[in-house]
Amino acid sequence: MTARAVHTTHAPQSSAPSPGARRHVLTAVALAATVPYLALKAAWLSGSRIGIPDGSVLLEAGMFLTVANAVTLAMDACVILLVLVLTRPWGLRTPAWMLTVPVFTATGLLTPILLAFPGQLLVRALGFGTGPEEAAARVPFLDDWVFIVVYTGFTVQGLALAALFVPYARKRWGRRWQGVLGERLPSPTGVVAAAAASGALVLAAICVYWAFGGTAGLSAERVEAHSAQSAVGSVVSAMCALAAGAGAVLLAHGGALGARWPLGLAWVGAAATLAWGAWLLIASLGPELDAGEGTPVATQLIYAGQMVTGSLATAVLVRFLISRRES
């Protein structure tokens, strides 16, 4: 009788992390990214001057700064709740509006940072930032490291939240963006989309004009502070406005084009244009910390125009999603 060697075979093991493991990592990263900003805000609310240099206007801001710090601390703390909704089983039972409104707002506030911050770092690394003599002549607002820490945290938050939201949305509402755009939306929606596109073109032209050094509609302080880094921010604002207009037109027009990209353009562009228009307009209506001349009315009207354009594109986006639910 011959002995036979018995070999046990094993199924090949995948080296790729499981979806659950990726989700846990992204959750940890998103939560960790909130810590620097929350810690700074908590420190300032408790009276610390960390990151605030001597001579900064923030030292004389009083109650306005206290309220602003409290509000922005609460806003960033909401990221923690948002992460839990996107990762816990009970999150799938959350009413749609209670999730989409915060996610839309977060998309709008974080997208320009995700686009502009790396570009500004690159411009600075290439030597196109503010020159040393100009920098020395200005009283600093915050220490440079504060901007690096805070905006790095925002960038990581934005990427992690996007990576968590996409699979969540695919699981819950995947059919809304599957397939092609389909039939043209009713004509009133087309008019709204055309208005959004027209506003986007005007806003983009203004932002590009400012990026290349245009001064019309700007305060003297902002004209003096113009640099290659601020130009990057203006270009990003133009890109977001154009995305909102283009997305709105594509969604309203319908057709055989896949729905995913027009929907993404409308969502990101409308959110960024609306959120930053509102943020800048509210900030411009507050007290002038450095006793300057304040924000010109023309600039405030442009911020309002951003809000209107973003709102119009958002209306088209909502109408498209409703049509998908009805079909």
UniProtKB/TrEMBL annotation:
It comes from the Bacteria. Keywords: Membrane, Transmembrane, Transmembrane helix. The keyword 4Fe-4S does not apply. The keyword Nucleotide-binding does not apply. The chain crosses the membrane at residues 25-44, 64-85, 97-117, 145-169, 190-212, 232-252, 264-282, 302-322. Residues 1-20 are annotated as: Disordered. This is LigA protein. The lineage of its organism: Bacteria, Bacillati, Actinomycetota, Actinomycetes, Kitasatosporales.
